[in-house]
Amino acid sequence: MSDLDGISVIFDLDGTLVDSEPNYYEAGRQTLAGQGVTDFTWADHERYVGISTQETIALWKERYGLDVSAEELLADKNRRYLELARASTPVYPEMRAFVELLAGDGVPMAVASGSSRSAVETILAGTGLDARLRVVVSAEEVAHGKPAPDVFLEAARRLGVAPGRCVVVEDAVPGVVAAGAAGMRCVAVPYVVAQAEDSAFAAAGLVFRGGQGEFTARQAYDWLAGSPA
Questions:
Q1: Catalytic residue at 12?
Q2: Which of 5, 12, 67, 222 is catalytic?
């Protein structure tokens, strides 16, 4: 028996398992440029890290006064993103190592993401993570995206485990809030390191305030093995 018996782990995808945010930024920049918004910056993009693509589009329409339908914007952004994702989406090495450690112990795992299901499946297949992460929930499949707990609760349901036996791995405030709302413990690895002092991250059981540069698979594993349910 392992010290992780009875525990399941649910991973966010973008900015947590893979460094896909640069691709999302570029897809968003191109999409907005096509609508006449030519000053979209990385700092602007950071406002939307951690929330679903659908909610990002809704906020864009409001902020930039876009007349085009949300469906058309979403399709345009997803098309551009998938082209970029297929070309290059790097996996964080220590995250891959963490997945392998958990898989070696037979820990049930899932991915719960704000991205479209097609985007999630494309990335998992392209990186080989789909061999370990077979349970996938997209925000498209639930009523509300993060910071609502829906995607995490649905992931727990599909894994067949109680929410209280799940640990979420997240990079953004909305995801950490969603994990708490789902009654799940959380390991936080802030993608935007400048946000690491946000009070929301204090709710996580383990926080790597230096982001991916500080995260190690062994430290996360040891915490998980020793943390009380």
A1: yes
A2: 12
